[in-house]
Amino acid sequence: MQIQNPLRFAMGGLCAALLLSVTLAQSPLDPASPNAAPQSPAPIGKGKMGKGKMGQGKMGKGNDPTFVADRDTFHYLLSNHDSIQRTVKLLKNGVETVTESDRPEVAKKIQEHVPAMYERLKSGNGVRYWDPLFAEAFKHGKKMKMEITRTEKGVKVVETSDQPDVVRIIQAHAEVVSRFVKHGFAEAEKEHPVPPIPDKK
Ligand code: HEM
Fold first, then answer.
1. Does the beta carbon of 107 sit less than 6 angstroms from any atom of ligand 1?
2. Can you give the pTM of this predicted structure?
3. Number of domains present in the structure of the chain
């Protein structure tokens, strides 16, 4: 192809590049953007950005100062899932879990992640609303109690509720965390159902 007017061609290219960069900068699905999610509690859309749905969360009133740090931490844990060990003991009113790593840097991230998520349960400023189980967990977060004990290599967590319908969410979530540990990002891309309420006719 012969270019008839090189200046016009160059200007055209520049305009296209500018348009593209403005579009990218404003993308509502950019996971790093503080405006990444809708303002309402409705489930957020499911776009694919970078690590797919994983970057998305519901931001409290378009402003979530710890979201990027929290997301980086759980992405780090998913990336290093092979270095994590976890046990779950079911209790009548919840779970007792131990989640650890022999690698100090991974252990430290586990120790950061759990209190940060507990804080989100208490404030109702959740993440991962596109996943039904997580949406349900954040709906009932204020009825959950978490006792977090640091161990040498991670954390021991006793998570309980005095409401049976909330206990089933806690136990289902603990199972999903174990699946994150086993499968990493492959599991984190999936939705997880809310377990049915037992004995509800
Ligand atoms: C390998 C990856 C991960 C590990 C090792 C991990 C570890 C944990 C642990 C130990 C707990 C305390 C409750 C329990 O032990 O069952 C927890 C709670 C929580 N995690 Fe993670 N997590 C991982 C990935 C994620 C991801 C990808 C998200 C969200 C995008 C997430 C969000 C939460 C939330 C919201 C809670 C509090 C909810 C509840 O415990 O009911 N975690 N996580």
1. no
2. 0.77
3. 1
